[in-house]
Structure formats: structure tokens, C-alpha cells
Amino acid sequence: MNPQALDGIRVLDLSRILAGPTAAQLLGDFGAEVIKIERPGKGDDARRLGGAVLRAQDGSPTDFAPMYVCANRNKKSMCVDFTKPEGADIVRRLVEAGAGVESVMPEERPLEDVYLELLNREDRP
After folding, report:
1. Counting beta carbons within 10 angstroms of the beta carbon of residue 5, is it exposed (0 to 12), middle (13 to 18) or buried (19 or more)?
2. What pTM was estimated for this model as a whole?
3. Residue 25 maps to which CATH number?
4. 67 contacts 18 by C-beta, under 8 angstroms
5. What range defines the domain where residue 103 resides?
6. What is the bridge-based pairing of β-strands 33-38 and 99-102?
7. Mind listing the pLDDT tens digit for each residue in 49-101?
């Protein structure tokens, strides 16, 4: 396989709906390892937007709406409650290893503290 422009770069995708996920998807298209973080019990709001829910091969409904699928290829995914200290610590460790894309709701603002802490570190790359 040919090397890509962003091989070896990790991107943490904390975004939702369309603009942020699409930006992170494009980074994945160029070779970045993109890890999408979704909220427990809710996931990305785009899972429920964009028309009919896609169906599995057996005809049963999935939790994937077309808009969600079109903006989330080339990504790994995990569920983390980053409003809790242990979740914020997971996010902190992942961001330390790469870059981040975010578009969070007001109740999820503890992430701002994580970002500010990392941005203000003197040993950051």
C-alpha cells in the first residue's frame, strides 16, 4: 500500500452532526488514524438525522442514518462519557497522542478544560 500524506497522525473526532465529522473523515481519507468518540446512550446526533434509518441484511433497523454513514467512513469508534473525570482522562490521553476535532454541546464543556490544559503545556509538540 502506498504511503499517504497523514500516515502516522492520530485524530480524535469529538464532533457531531455533519461539519466536524466530515472534516475528520477527510483527514482519514488522507491516511490519518481517526478515532470517533460518541456519547454513551446517545451517540452522534447524526445517527438519527437525514431520513430513513438503514437496515441490516436481515431487514432489521440499525442505528445508522444515511447522513451519519456518509460522514464517518475511515474511522474507529468508541463510546466515552467525557463529562466524567475518568472519561475526560481517556480523552486527554488520546489527544496527547495526536490532534482533535470537536463540536460539543454546552453540557459537555469539561472538554474545554482538557484542551486548555494540553494547549498550555510547555512540552507539547
Report:
1. exposed
2. 0.78
3. 3.40.50.10540
4. yes
5. 10-119
6. unpaired
7. 766 778 889 999 887 888 888 899 999 999 998 778 898 888 888 877 777 78
